[in-house]
Each structure stands twice: as C-alpha cells, then as structure tokens.
Amino acid sequence: MTNTTTATNATPTNATNVTAIGQTEIPSHPLPSYLNPNDLGPWGTFLQQVDRVTPYLGNLSRWVETLKRPKRILVVDVPIFLDNGTVAHFEGYRVQHNTSRGPGKGGVRFHQDVTLSEVMALSAWMSIKNAAVNVPYGGAKGGIRVDPRKLSIGELERVTRRYTSEIGIIIGPSKDIPAPDVNTNEKIMAWMMDTYSMNQGTTSTGVVTGKPIDLGGSLGRREATGRGVFTVGVQAAQRIGLPIEGARVAVQGMGNVGGVAARLFSEAGARVVAAQDHGGSIYNEAGLNMPALLEHVSKTGTVAGFEDAEVLANEAFWQTPCDILIPAALEGQITELNAHQIQARMVIEGANGPTTPHADDILNDRGVLIVPDVIANAGGVTVSYFEWVQDFSSFFWSEEEINKRLVDIMKGALDAIWQVSAEHNVSLRTATFIVACKRILHARDLRGLYP
Ligand SMILES: NC(=O)c1ccc[n+]([C@@H]2O[C@H](COP(=O)([O-])OP(=O)(O)OC[C@H]3O[C@@H](n4cnc5c(N)ncnc54)[C@H](O)[C@@H]3O)[C@@H](O)[C@H]2O)c1
Predict the structure, then answer these.
(1) Whether the predicted pLDDT of 27 surpasses 50
(2) Sheet containing 176-180, strands listed edge to edge, beginning at the edge strand earlier in sequence
(3) Which Pfam families does this one have (predicted)?
(4) What's the pLDDT band for 32 if we cut at 50, 70, 90?
(5) How is residue 86 annotated by DSSP?
(6) Which residues contact 122 (CB under 8 A, 6 or more apart)?
(7) Is the CB of 42 under 6 A from ligand 1?
(8) Cβ distance 379 to 227 under 8 Å?
(9) CB-side neighbour CA atoms (13 Å) of 93
C-alpha cells in the first residue's frame, strides 16, 4: 500500500507518526497541525505530485514521507520604521524542505500574497529541481508578505536587512543559500549579503547567489533561467518536430525569466505574438518587437501601454493562437478553467507551479506537451551553483564557459528525463519527479537517520 494523502482527500488522522523503515507497508500520516486540510494551496499540488510518483520509487518509497513535510520552517516578524516614522510589521518565512543532498537553496519572494503553503511548495520544488539537474543542493525558499511597489527604496532596504537578520540563524554558505525570485533582484541580494556579512563579522559572498558581478556574482546569472527555458524548449520542440523558426510564442510575465526567454526565442526566429503581465495583455500577430517591448517594460514596469500592439483582454490571453506558451509569472495560472482553451502544442513552465494538477491532466489528455518547471526553469539555480562554486574558490569563469556548462547540463538533464518518460510512459513532470525523488531518497537512505 502506498500513501494516498492528497490535497483532495487529505484529512488529519490519528495514524502513527513513525515511518515503517524496512517494512513494505507505509502508514498514512496526519497533516502537520499548521496546515488547513481544506485549503492546502500550492503545497497540496506538491503532495499530489509526490503521490503520483510514489509507485515508481521502488524500495525507496519507504522514505517518501520525508518529502511530504519540510525539514524546517522559520516564520519571522519583520518590523521596520516606515519613512513617516511609524512602525510596520511584515510576515516573513524561510522554509528548508530537504537537505539530504546538500545545503538548502532557493529564492526569496517579496509579494503581498505570499503564504506559508506557497513557500513550502516552492521549497519542495527546489529540492526536486536541484536533484533533477544534479546540483549538490537540497531545497529551500523564502518570502515576505509585502508589496515592494508600495515601499520607498529606504523601506525596501530596511525590510530586506531585518528579514536577513531574522533568518540569519539558519542561512549560510554551507547551510542554506538564498537567491532572487519574484520582486527581488541583485540589489536586494547585495543587501542580504552585506547584512549577513556584518552580523558574522566577515565578508561572506557565498551566502546568497544572484549578486551583482562586483560582489562575487556570476556572469550569465541574470539571464540563466530564461536561457534554460529557451534551451530545454528548443530541445523539446525538436523532439516533437516543431520548428522554432516562425513558431508563435505567447509569454506570461516579462520579468527576469519571461523577458529573457521571449528575447531568446525571438532572436532564434520565433514570433512572440502575445505577452501578459500584472499590468495587462498585448498581442501582435506579426510578432512583438522584443527589444522595443523590453525597453518599454524596463521604463514603465509593464507591457501595458506598448504602442506597437493590440490590447488583449486578460482572459483572452490563454486562447491566443500559438505554438508555444510560456507561463513565467506566478503559480496556479493554468487551471481547469483555461486549460481547455490553450491552443499551444507545447507549454514551457518558466514560472514555478503555474499549472494545477487538474489542468496538467487536461493538457496531457489533449496531447499538449508540458515541459515542467522543475526542469524548464532549473537554469537559474544551475548558474547559482556556478556562482557559489566561484565564490568559494574566488576564481571567476568567462560568460562563454558559464553558458556552455549551463546548456550542457540542461540538455543532459532533459535527455535523461525524456528517456524515463518514454520508459514508463509518463509525463515529463512525473519523469522529472521520478529522477529527482530517487536521487533525494537515495541520499536519505545512504545517510540514514541521526540521532
Ligand atoms: N528569477 C529566477 O531566476 C527564477 C528561477 C526559477 C524560477 N523562477 C520563477 O519564475 C517566475 C517569474 O520570476 P521572475 O524572477 O521572472 O520574477 P520578476 O519579478 O522578474 O517578474 C515577474 C513577472 O510576472 C508578472 N506578474 C506578476 N503578477 C502577475 C499576474 N497576476 N498576472 C500576470 N503577470 C503577473 C510581472 O508583471 C512580471 O512581468 C516565478 O514563478 C519564479 O518563482 C524564477
């Protein structure tokens, strides 16, 4: 019997809390008390994904419960002085999902809607992603419930520094290494690195990745996630006989990931026909002028108002006639409500968790190929790994070398996953989970439990 706890049927039980190591029976476990079984959020999606992969884990499935609860959760209060002299409090998190294969690794998100469930799921997807591309990290993630657009630059710095001090007790170059995510960037990484370093009394460049080049950052890191999306996208397109030249691409999110991926596809001859972000949606059948659009976004913060395009209703974005759809904004964007309308042959998940499990099934049934987040957007963490290695040795590589190593790792990982997908006749997502969960649980098995 395998564990069947899912987002839909998960209810707290009084079942034993002892994992039956060495036995074939795996007892059902209650959900942790801090979760609401009726509203598991993104964490529920992750639990369903683990349940789907469990039958393929063989003997290692006896360890699968370790994946269903994060190793460590830190919830912190982040008080700061606002510019008007009052004190505001924000809720912050750092979750270390699994560290069997190495230190925690994962970004920090600043967003008003961040929840613990979301950060838990994002940390777990980091465990899977790091194992899928075989970098020696566990999975972690952090976040603050704050809308950074409402803060002045001084307030943003104070929130970042106080949060870093609060989570400083569990992060560190060999413990857990944060990086940028939604609404965080190089500048914020510089403040995090400085705060941690000042508290430690030593310059510690390896505590975060995604730093400015002059502070131990890596060439190629800013573009790495988008480049990885592009690399696996091209590989997958080749395998299904979809030429990139002339392919129509729709992209949700014109930030770090979506903007770079869109530009690279456009440079390779594809037509980026539609774009959506928090400000609105635009369309141009002939293909959006990417350099001009990216300049517009960097000036105004949104695709809305771009002159050389038609305005599209936000719901209509999902029905755009296109060959490749790249969700590169937030999770839970492709649902059972819009999955039927998607016209693309291939979805490349630049964002983390953009497709709900139900929508995943609908798209799979309709023959739409999904290149899942846990491989498609792993380019960022791969170059973060390069950055961390360079910081340890204080010896820096050329951009050419970095991009070559990145492309080699991404191609190799996709090849391996494609093979597992064909072997077991499962989706690329399940195949990625099979490869990754086996690596994580094998490490757990080798290490055993201590104390
Ligand atoms: N930055 C990285 O290296 C990296 C690595 C792996 C995964 N990711 C994931 O990629 C996604 C995007 O991250 P990013 O770094 O590009 O963030 P970003 O802040 O640079 O860009 C986010 C984009 O999403 C858009 N957006 C926000 N809310 C939206 C909404 N409600 N509807 C439509 N668009 C909306 C924003 O306008 C912006 O264009 C996230 O899911 C993140 O976790 C990022």
Answers:
(1) yes
(2) 72-81, 87-98, 139-145, 104-111, 176-180
(3) ELFV_dehydrog, ELFV_dehydrog_N
(4) confident
(5) -
(6) 42, 95, 106, 107, 109, 141, 143, 181, 331, 352, 353
(7) no
(8) yes
(9) 29
Average pLDDT score over residue span 268-280:
98
Give the C-alpha distances (Å, rounded to integers) separating 10 from 7, 57, 238.
5, 21, 40
Q: Whose CA is nearest to atom 27 of ligand 1?
A: 278
Residue range(s) in the chain whose domain bears CATH number 3.40.50.10860: 2-219
CA of 330 to the centre of ligand 1 (A): 6
Residue 62: count of CB within 10 angstroms of its CB:
20
- Average pLDDT for residues 114-127, to the nearest whole number? 97
Six token digits for residue 390: 């360079």
Least confident of 30-34, 45-49, 428-432: 30-34
pLDDT digits (tens, 9 = 90+) for 196-254: 999 999 999 999 999 999 999 999 999 999 999 999 999 999 999 999 999 999 999 99
Which residues are known to be catalytic? 141
The fold adopted by the segment(s) 222-371 is: Rossmann fold (3.40.50)
Tokens in use for 167?
A: 């989570």
C-beta 255 within 6 A of ligand 1? yes
pLDDT digits (tens, 9 = 90+) for 329-359: 998 999 999 999 999 999 999 999 999 999 9
CA angle 3, 427, 61 (to 5 degrees): 25
Domain 2-219 has CATH 3.40.30.10: no
- The CA 388 to ligand 1 mean position distance, Å, reads 23
CA distance 264 to 230: 7
Q: Is 195 exposed, middle or buried (0-12, 13-18, 19+ CB in 10 A)?
A: buried
Residues of the chain with CATH 3.40.50.720: 222-371
* H or E element at residue 228: helix 221-239
Q: According to the model, what pLDDT value does residue 331 have?
A: 87
Write the DSSP assignment of 263-327 as a string of letters: HHHHHTT-EEEEEEETTEEEE-TT---HHHHHHHHHHHSSSTT-SSSEEE-TGGGGG---SEEEE
